[in-house]
Specification:
Immunoglobulin-like; mainly beta; single chain; globular; disordered N terminus; 5 helices; 3 domains; 6-stranded antiparallel sheet; 14% helix
Length: 369
């Protein structure tokens, strides 16, 4: 295994190190009444709050850059804004939530949940939490909030309230605001946002294990790759990049056969993958076709091999992934945050790693998180 001298890659990127304040009000769209108790948070972070009796909220010490501001409340459709905070100031963002329409069949009596529901829960947990070693120590505490359906080969899941997840591999408690989940023959897609908080370790040994596991989760991640890319240190951080102008067929995240990938791959200058953006702390990720990313700092986990065998792909020595810009060029900031969280599609190892393998967006290995 390659040992990297340093993984503090963001130190080489222009760091304004500034924070902002976000505040506003959440109201009912139909009658304008304030909505107290609504969840307002920065998606994939540890920054969040709830609205007061007048539906007002304040989020302080928000790092500038790209973020998704997410609002959710039971009985209402969630809402969000993808925003770029460029300077340190107060940003006002108000929300009008639309009351949710309760469709026939959505109310499930607990006694009606039989073995079929439990089988579907197991399937959902595998595809959502993942199958990595971290997944074995990650649990959904309120699975009763989930319901499922299967139609024409597609598996659906939805939640009546935020999923509460405890990850004892990385030391986080997660509220996951799941909006949609579906899995078909080739892909798993889910729409929703997590809010993190740190668990309290029970011992010094557990705290040490969490630190070690968090570093492992971060290294080789897409955020690690972007920070290395922006600092022109991809090779020094263990990444090799290639371009694949075409593929014989589009591989889904079910890891279609390796032979389906075109053998025509070419080394690429990583700096050609992005260009300057609207400010000195913004960049535009822009490329055609697929980019293959090989992370040489860590080998693929044996649990990944098991998944690949079920889909006919042979082993790779190092973590190998592919990315594609299905929506065209996408904006990223100096922190490795993508303005449109769904602007980049992942295949291979990056798609294999699921909720159990993710750390908050503000986590860095050289910080005390």
């Amino acid at each position: 295994m390659m040992v990297l001298a340093s993984i503090g890659v963001d130190a080489c990127v222009a760091q304004p190190n500034t924070t902002a304040i976000i505040k506003g009000q959440v109201v009912d769209k139909e009658n304008g009444n304030p909505l107290p108790g609504a969840h307002v948070f920065i998606a994939t972070s540890m920054i969040g709050t709830t609205t007061d009796s007048e539906g007002r909220y304040t989020l302080g010490r928000v790092p500038t850059g790209a973020l998704r501001l997410y609002v959710s409340m039971l009985g209402y459709e969630p809402d969000f804004k993808d925003i770029m905070l460029r300077v340190s100031r107060v940003y006002p963002f108000d929300f009008q939530l639309t009351p949710a329409i309760l469709e026939v069949g959505e109310i499930i009596i607990e006694a009606e949940r039989d073995k079929n529901w439990k089988r579907r829960l197991d399937r959902f947990t595998t595809m959502f939490i993942g199958e990595s070693p971290n997944a074995a120590n990650t649990k959904i505490l309120n699975p009763e909030a989930l319901d499922f359906d299967e139609k024409r080969g597609t598996f659906y899941a939805w939640a009546s309230e935020p999923l509460v997840i405890e990850n004892y591999a990385l030391g986080y408690r997660i509220q996951y605001f799941l909006k949609d989940f579906e899995q078909d023959r080739t892909r798993t897609r889910y729409d929703g946002e997590p809010l993190y908080e740190e668990l309290t370790p029970e011992s010094a040994e557990q705290a040490s294990l969490w630190r070690e596991n968090r570093v492992k989760a971060f290294t080789g991640s897409f955020r690690h790759f972007l920070l290395a890319l922006l600092s022109h240190r991809t090779e020094g951080q263990g990444f090799k990049t290639y371009t694949r102008p075409e593929m014989n067929s589009l591989p889904g995240d079910s890891f279609q056969r390796r032979s389906s990938l075109s053998d025509r791959r070419f080394p690429i200058d990583p700096s050609s993958l992005f260009k300057p953006g609207a400010s000195s702390t913004e960049f535009v990720l822009n490329f055609d076709g697929f980019v293959e990313i090989i992370y040489q700092g860590e080998q693929e986990d044996p649990s990944y091999y098991d998944w690949l065998k079920r889909n006919g792909r042979r082993k790779s020595k190092f973590q190998t992934s592919w990315i594609r810009l299905e929506r065209g060029p996408t904006v990223i900031d100096y922190k490795g945050d993508v303005l449109d969280p769904y602007g980049v599609t992942f295949y291979g190892y990056l798609a294999f790693e699921r909720v159990a393998d993710e750390v908050p967006k503000e986590y860095r290995p050289d910080r005390a998180h």
